[in-house]
Structure formats: C-alpha cells, structure tokens
Amino acid sequence: MTDIMEALRQAELKHKNLELKVQFNSNMELFRTKIPRIYTRFKDYEPEELRLLFSEEGYVNLVNFKLDNKPVYDMDPQEFSKLQVANYVKKPNISCVGINDAQESQKRRFVQAKTLFDLCSEARESIARPKNISQSPVGLMIMTGVGLGYHLSELIESMDIYNFCLYDPHPDSFYASLHTIDWTPIIEYFSQPHRRLKFFIGDNETAVLNHIRALANHIGVFNLSVTSIYRHFSSALEEQFIEKYCREFQFNTSGMGFLEDEQISLAHCARNLNKKIQVLNSKQSTQNLPPVIIVGNGPSLDKTLEILKENADNAIIFSCGSTSGTLCKAGIIPDFHIEMERTRGTAPWLKKGTTQDFRDKVTMLALNTVAPETFDLFPQSLMAIKSNDPSIKLIKDESQSKYFVLNFCNPTVTNCGLAFAAALGFREIYLMGVDLGWKEGGDHHAELSLYSNLDEKSLESITPMYEKGSYSIKGNFSENIRTNNVLDDSRSVMELLLRDNEAQVYNLSDGALIGGTTPYAPEKLKLKDLNENKKISTEKLVKERFSDTKTPKITKKTFIRDHLSAFNKLKSVVKLSTKNTNKKEIFIQLNAIYKKVEQLPPEHFMAKLLLRGSINAFFMCIARACLHETEADDTSRNFIRSSIHYNNFIDFSYKLMNEDPLKLDDSESHLE
After folding, report:
1. In angstroms, rounded to a whole number, what is the distance separating the alpha carbons of residues 645 and 118?
2. Looking at residue 400, what is its pLDDT?
3. What DSSP assignment string belongs to 169-220?
4. Which bin fits 524, alpha (ψ -120 to 50), beta or left (φ > 0)?
5. How far apart are the first and last CA of the chain?
6. Residues 6 or more apart whose Cβ sits within 8 Å of residue 80
7. Residue 262, CB half-sphere, CA atoms under 13 Å: how many?
8. CB atoms within 10 A of CB 260
9. What is the rounded CA–CA span in Å between residue 598 and residue 612?
10. Which of 77-83's residues contact partners 24+ apart within 8 Å by CB, and which partners?
11. What one-character DSSP code corresponds to residue 403?
C-alpha cells in the first residue's frame, strides 16, 4: 500500500470514527430524554469483551478483543442483517400457547367454558395452526441479541410489531449499537398508540421473565398467544432464555381467572364475613415463635412420617390441603389445616379423608375465598385476604380496620402454607413433603393420601394434569425431579416470597430444589422440647394476629348498590363491534377494550378483576381465530362468529352479577 493510499485510509477511518462518535452522542441525548436509565447505564460504559473495529473490507464489525479480535459477524453486518430479516419474514419462529378444551364437568358447570368450547370448535384449524404471521399484527416479539442493530429498522419496516422486548445478556453489544444506528426512528415507532418497546440489557433471565409476566398483565395475555421470537445471536444464555420462556409461558384459557370464578370468590367472601370469621390483621407478632413444619402431600412424605411424628410436639404443624387425610391415617394431629381452594368440593374431600374427632383438634387457616361449608368443618376457622382477588375490595370497603393481604399464596396449597407462616412471623420453618414434583415413574402423592383410594375413572381425570407437559428440573437431594408448569410455578413463587424474608427455611423434601431454602436431611431433625409452650404460643398467636372485621351484613341489595356501579358502567365498553373486520381493526379493538379494563383506577379494582380474566381468555381465542388467516373473508367470518359468542357471554355475565351475585359454588366433587 502506497503512502498516499494509507493516508487516504487513515483519513477515511478518522471520518468513520467521527461519524460513530456523533451517532453515539445523538443517541445518548435521545435516551437521556426518553429512557434515562439507558442513558445513565451507558454514558460512562467500558466494554468488557466486545468492541467496534473496521474490517479490511471497510465496514464496521463487532469483535471479541479477548479472543484476538475474533469477529462476531462473518460478513458485512448490514448485509447479514438484511438477509437474516428477509429469511425470518419468509419463515418466522413463533411460540404458541396451547389452547386446551375444558373438562366436561367444567363445561357443564361454567358458561364460559362451554362458550369458549363452542367458539374454538368453529375455528379449530385456525386456532391450532397460526399462519401468515409476517402479514399479521404481532402482539409480542422477543428479540435476543441487539448486535450492531442494523436488523431493527428492517424488522419494523417488514412486520407490524406492537410490543417488542429486546433481550441481550451482553451489554457490550447494545453499547456498540449506540454508535452504529440511529435509535430515534425506532423509539418514535414504538411510541405510537398501542405500541411498546422494552429493553432488557444484561439483565438476569429470571428478572426478565418476571418483567414479561408483568407485561402480560398490562397488555393482555392474548398478545402473547403467538409470540414471534427473533434470534439475532444464539449464545448459550440466549438459547437458555428462549427455552425457559417457551416452557414457562404456556398459559391456557382455564388458568387466567374468569368472571364466574371471581363471582364465586366474592360470594364466598361475603358469606364468610357474614359468619364473622376472624381475619388476619396487619399487626406484628410480639413473641418468639417456635419452629413450624409445613407438611405437603408429596410422595417423599412417606419416608418422613415417623420423623414428623417424633417432632410433632416440638413444633407447630401446618397440614396443607389433602395432607390432612394422610396425617389422619398416620395418627398425627396438626395444629393448623391450610386451605386455599374455593370450590365446594373441598369439604367432601376433608370429610372423606379425616374424622370429626381429628378435625375437632385442629384450627383451619384458609383464604377468605374458601367455600363456607369448608370453614364449618372445624371448631375454629380463621382466614386471610387472598392477594390479587376482587374480594380485597369487598373487605376493605366493608371494614374499618386494616388487614393483611396474603401475597404469594398460590398456585398450590403449600404456597398458602408458606405464605401464612411468613405472615404470622415464623422464623424457623421446615418443609416436609413439599416435593413440587415426583421421581421418574413414581407416584405424585404420599401413599396414605386419599388420591390412592380414588377409582380408576377419577384417577384418569387427575393424572394427566400432572404428566402432561412435564419436564425435569434440579432436585433437592437428587440430580433431577419431574415437574410441570403449575408445580414449577409454585416453586418460583416460593422463591419470590423467600427472597425478601428473614426466615430460615429448611427443605426436608425429596423433591424440587427451592431457591432460598437449605436442603436438610430429614434424619437430622431433632427439635427441642417445647412442653406447654407450644399450646400457649399457638393460642397467643391466634389472639394477637386475628380479629373481627365488624362488617355490616352483606346482602344482594347492598352488594349491587355498593360494589357494582363501576362494573355496570363498562358493559357497552367491553362488547365487541363487528363494524370493522380487517385484521388491524380487530387487533386495535381487542387492545382498546383490554386497555380500558386494565387501566381502571384502584377504586375500581373489583370491576377490573371481574372482567380481565374472561376478556383475556376470549380475546386469546378470537385473536388466534382471526388474525392469522390468509383470506380477508375468512378473517371477517371468524370474527363475526367469535364476537357473537363473546358478546353473549358478556350479556350472561352482567345478568349473573346483577341477579345472583352472591351465589355460592355448586360444582361437582369426585367424592359425591
């Protein structure tokens, strides 16, 4: 290379470096005003592995300076990005939520289950196999790897993206993009109505998934029903994140709450308040509490029953749900029985699995939504307010006192047991039979469990709930344990609860490893003798932490007058119009309705929770039935049919809430 050519090259590099610096300063000013946390993080950032370097061919590349400047892109990054986007548009990678049929008993009992079944039956093929993704509104796209960012403008020009999550575990990469692309049009695009851009740069994958869960509530689960996944890079961290997202976000229409279920919750709460059942208050315990053993009905309980029996007098025992039947057979009397299920079928299970003499020696701790007949089975029953439930508003409006809202109390009854223990102030907690999974080929419950006595037909309806979609996770005492989405979610919720709790929690269960707990060999458990202190401590705890609500009697008339005004004003707002039936208009209408419900002010919390779950479930099916058709006529036909089913359900819902709002659950039980 001649001196002149080298001088020209150096001048060109200097000019390009200046362009990169100018672009960086422009982007930083943009983020300073629009997204300050990005500005703060990167204004003095120093790359740890990746940096920009000009290639011999004259383009800017990203290289790993710890690996002798190994290039991240093996060709011109701009050309690579164009080609990658073009290939993605031809064949998008998607993660679809499975929409499952409800059980026959649910279709008989709940109008929503029957209506959704009819809706889905008419558009089954469209719902099962989403197609034409690139020409449809994209409710959510998750992109892994920002790289130099050249693909971003290509993507938003090629696809109609509404909610965009950028996940890059490597901050160096995002920092580089601040020099190479103009972020202004991207930020402006996602600042339009109904659009949203979320940055997760260098964040922990668990934290990112929790943020996406919160986002799902904010924008509606139906927007995640078909998630577009764009992988710009495929590092091990990014692969792991996508795998976990696809596994954990398998929502289904029966698992997101629904109006009839919320109505039951309110009716049960109203009846329990009328019966003057005491409620967990917000006071702090004034005593040093003894150890508590939270007992679940997992299969490993079989091997620890004798150890539990030996220590039962020296700890307060929480028996969770069906575990009481196992303990009754084993001759172990717990101090407290924990319940969270609101269906009336819980009472027959308890009657079948335990004796009256057993129950007479036990105090029940339950959520305020539990069926009144379940409370009647025990001489003393106490309750706590379930979090994220419309009944919170009912109690707060009717009572002048302050009460404790029990967070992290579901999805399983062992979550409820741990939540009660933490709220009551226990600082030494032992988990026994809280397996949250099962050994390969093993049982799902303890041997003495009532489940072991069910007939074949009943077992056939229960077993698939455990086995379907099961997978392996790290065990507490073993390398692997089988689990499913519900049980694994239970584990995650326990970890969230324990993250900010001062209690020492020891896990004696041969099941899933639970973060925040200490694995503890059962044979080591030898608790100190409490003598009479246990009884005194228990009585004092109940007296201190539970109190009367002093609420006036709730009747149908007072309930409608005092609690349904906001709900009733929304009827015309939440119904679908079939005036416009193209894909974009349908998508905007679904989002506009959901937004009006989701953004209701706190004083209208009850109205929001009554409607949100059912709207999500219906809109998930409607979006799948309508937004991915190839022909406009098919889109229009499916939308008109679906809207009729949905609007009929809305009419039914308003009739139910205004004619029979305090109707108690009358669902079937396997034991009746």
Report:
1. 8
2. 60
3. S-HHHHHHHHHHS--HHHHHHTTSTT-EEEEEES--HHHHHHHHHHHHHHH-
4. alpha
5. 92
6. 73, 74, 150
7. 30
8. 23
9. 7
10. 77/147, 77/148, 77/150, 77/180, 78/150, 80/150, 81/147, 81/148, 81/150, 81/151, 81/154, 81/232, 82/150, 82/151, 82/154
11. B
CB 415 within 8 A of CB 294: no
Tokens of 585: 């208009």
Q: Answer yes or no: are the C-beta atoms of 427 and 504 closer than 8 Å.
A: yes
* Largest separation between any pair of C-alpha atoms in the chain: 101
Coil, helix or strand for 270?
helix
Is 341 within 8 Å of 370 (Cβ atoms)? Answer: yes
What is d(CA 607, CA 565) in angstroms, rounded to the nearest whole number?
A: 9
Per-residue pLDDT tens digits for 38-87: 999 999 999 999 999 988 888 999 999 989 999 999 999 999 999 999 99
Q: Which residues contact 322 (CB under 8 A, 6 or more apart)?
A: 297, 349, 353, 413, 445, 449, 450, 451
Helix orientation angle between 583-598 and 605-626, rounded to the nearest 10 degrees: 160
**What does the pLDDT look like over 131-156, one tens digit per residue?**
888 999 999 999 999 999 999 999 99
* 101, 117 Cβ separation under 8 angstroms: yes
What's the pTM value of the predicted model, to 2 decimals? 0.89
Question: 100 and 253 in contact (C-beta within 8 Å)?
Answer: yes
Tokens linked to 368: 């305020």
3-state DSSP call for residue 341?
coil
Cβ(625)–Cβ(119) below 8 Å: yes
Phi, psi of 510 (to 5 degrees): -90, 65
Tokens 């109006």 map to which residue?
Answer: 259
